[in-house]
Amino acid sequence: MKEAAEKSDFSAEHYGMDYIQFSIDQLGMDLENFPAPSKLTADQSYRIRVIVDEKVREQESYTSIEDHRAVLLSLIDILLAAVYDQLTNSNELNEANSHINIHRISGTLAYFVEYNGVQQMLRSFYRRSCTYPYYRNKDIALACVKQVLHRMSSEDRKQWIQQQLIHTYEAFKRTDCAVLNHYFIKDFIRYVELGLNEETLLQCIKEVEKLLPEIHQASLGFGEESLLQKLLQDIMGQEESDSTDSDDYESSEEDSEESDSDNESVGTDTDANPNENVLEKLMNLKLSG
């Protein structure tokens, strides 16, 4: 049901236009320089303590989890959605769409998915991040995965995870998604404090790093390669048509212009076509990327 819904919801036009715009200006984003994560505020730290204290006497229920791997795959899935939201919202909470972004991108939160493995989780993130948010591009998804890998390799990984979870909690708390705080986010906050299995977490992260190139290059399963190819061909065809019309217009006035050209100095440079760089980039696009 989940993948069928994704295929139905996928917009070829939206994805295609974002693909082209990204090749021109990266949709206005700097994917090489993520904003430094802000520290937890006093209010956020207090909220985390309150959430943890509600179940602190039940710590064993978190440490004795039989399958930490399944829990951690869901956690990583939510972290990826939170990072995607922050990257596309200038590292800020957007009250209008942050809850929508995180809820829709995360299969854990949207469909209560329990992932069988890293590959399934990563593929879900790529498909959903190219279907539901305002900005849809595989390179944005790639940047988000790399950011999670980077933060998970640092010694303060637990604090960073809590920052993403509290961001999600605050995005949900005054919306229709508030119920997800009760059933998911608060329990993940407690799990990170009371029962996080860091050894298994790092194993999952290594698998993510290993599988990332394959997932990034693979098709989303929406037939997007042929759609992009057709879109680019249409753009090139339109440009050629415009160029032909321009040539016809110029040739009709050639005689009258020749009489004036003798009295004008001839420059060695001509005005650059403002679309030249854009078209050159489009011609060099690698659709598999």
Automatic annotation (TrEMBL):
Biological process terms from the Gene Ontology for this record are: box H/ACA snoRNP assembly
Q: Where is this region: Disordered?
A: 236-278
Please tell me the species this chain comes from: Anopheles merus
**What is the protein's given name?**
Protein SHQ1 homolog
Source organism, top-level taxon:
Eukaryota
Acidic residues composition bias: residue spans: 237-263
Q: Which Pfam families match?
A: SHQ1
Q: Where is the composition biased (Polar residues)?
A: 266-276
- Write down any Gene Ontology CC term: cytoplasm
Per the database record, which ranges form the Shq1 C-terminal domain? 60-222
Q: One GO molecular function term?
A: unfolded protein binding
Q: Which residues form a coiled coil?
A: none
Member of which family? Belongs to the SHQ1 family.
